[in-house]
Amino acid sequence: MPTSKDIDVNKLNFTIGPVQSSEHIRNIGAEQVPYFRTQEFSTLMLENERLMKQLADAEANARVCFITGSGTASMEAVVSNCFTPQDRLLIINGGTFGHRFEELAEIYEIPHTTVHVEMGHKLTKEQLYAFDGQSYSALLVNMHETSTGVLYDMDMIADFCRKNSIFLVVDAISSFLCDSFSMKRWGVSVMIAASQKALACHPGISMITLSSEAVQRITSHNVKCLYLNLNLALSNGERGQTPFTPAISILRQLNARVKDIIASGGVEKEIQRVAALASDFRSRISDLPFSLFPERMSNALTAICPNNVSAYSIFTTLKDEYDIWVCPNGGILADKVLRVGHIGDLSVSDNTRLINALKDMQQRGLL
Ligand SMILES: *Cc1c(COP(=O)(O)O)cnc(C)c1O
Fold first, then answer.
1. pLDDT tens for residues 167-204?
2. What gap in Å lies between CA 342 and CA 344, rounded to an integer?
């Protein structure tokens, strides 16, 4: 039996999550965990809810549920709590994460139709409007399909949903704080985010921001589950509590991180920072043997197709020989598409280190 060795935590991390956290946030993770059935913790949680609503540009009556679990836990909570077999869902599937919504709809036996988007391509108006006027009750989309880097056109999707009076669920897990987002402007009913992407905290918390319409939908359903029961989360949340022991340290990190973002100029400023890192990286790989993958890219990551070698081999060489993590892909994209994240505590000089490593690999004949 192999025994575990210490994992090197000091590699430069360009993955899409978990990402590098700032020293301030890491230090919170190193502290003792305080008892949480207290007024002090409730105050922190009510502040978390208020700040999350501010960052998501949510309506005044919106609510936020903090789920201890990764992003998929919140995706599952949304599908199981918001929908019943009386609903008809339209699911945008352009890769791994779109497929996850489809799997959930199947497990919970919610009638659904999938709009298949070819990997790496955008959703077109023609594809979407083929479902116009067909009495779907909800549309589910991953604003940024993280497996391919495609950023969907949310203005177009929001117009379609308004026109058809459709409940709009947005998994914004990998686009939140990277690409502009507004619950109010787009009439989003449910928005999902998670701690380990651009929020750059440790993994383990995901957040569901609910419009008042979504809250009503949930309170009128009788969901058959305990841990992901959003009615329980909502009623406990009224006093700043959670039904079960939450990942307290991460909720404290989240509080500090959101305050850091606001103190540094707010959400648009943070988006600009991520966008600047992405455009710096993209401008400096133009003479490397890569082609860019999707038609419409999120600032969160750059997806590249190496012209000459397997994408996965670049991931392995960077990890083992240069102490850099980039993000490989799974399934049919594993050898084709490599992803470089621009989220977390990264700088232009970190980009330089990655570019230099890639240029060195090119000289060695490994690109
Ligand atoms: C990362 C991610 C998720 C959640 O994945 P977990 O591993 O469960 O945190 C969901 N949707 C998208 C678009 C993501 O990028």
1. 999 999 999 999 999 999 999 999 999 999 999 999 99
2. 7
Q: Which of 174, 178, 191 to mutate to test the pocket of ligand 1 (most atoms within 8 A of CB)?
A: 174
Q: How far apart are the CA of 229 and the centre of ligand 1, in A?
A: 20
How many beta carbons lie within 10 A of that of residue 235, not counting itself? 13
Length of the chain as a residue count: 367
Alpha helices (H) along 31-124: 39-55, 71-82, 96-107
Residue list, ligand 1 pocket, CB within 6 Å: 17, 70-72, 97, 142, 146, 171, 173-174, 194
Ligand 1 centroid–CA 4 distance in Å is: 27
Is the four-CA dihedral 312, 280, 299, 73 of positive or negative sign? Answer: positive
What's the predicted TM-score (pTM) here? 0.97
Which of 19, 68, 72, when mutated, tests ligand 1's pocket best, judged by the most ligand atoms within 8 Å of its CB?
72
Average per-residue pLDDT for the chain? 97
CA-based nearest residue to 246, from 287, 204, 300: 204
Who's near 261: CB < 8 A, 6+ residues apart? 55, 177, 267, 269, 270
Asked if 171 and 75 touch (Cβ cutoff 8 Å), the reply is: yes
